[in-house]
# Entry
Amino acid sequence: SSKKKKSAKGAVAPILAIVHPSSAVDSSGKLRVVPRVLAQHHCRPPPSSPETLIAWMTSIRKRHLREYARLQHARKEMELLRERSEGYASSMKEDKAREEKEERELQLKREEEERELKRKAELEERRKALLEGLPEEPEAGITEGIMTIGLRF
# Structure
């Protein structure tokens, strides 16, 4: 404001303003958000009590009910957009973490299966070696030098 009125003491009188964001097209053709003054209170005389100030603000809100509703709706939409964006980002992180966990579990399962197969192969080799180390079974019917014993556990 180029013309500011000074009070008797020489100080600039305060101005109370209600401002809200508004869309405007700048010289380059881009849509920009700029402040828009909805109402001004020149504080001559200044509000004597908080109730007076609240009454003035309530009357402004009632006078500009459609703009107020539009602003509330825009604020709500921005909040929902922010929640969706954050939800999408967190969902992407959770999906990536879940996929990595599944991949690790699959790798561990493969390693466990490989270890199990290796253990079984070693066990088979050991059994073969032990079977080869045993003497030949006697033929049925030969009883010389052969003793049969019973083991009970």
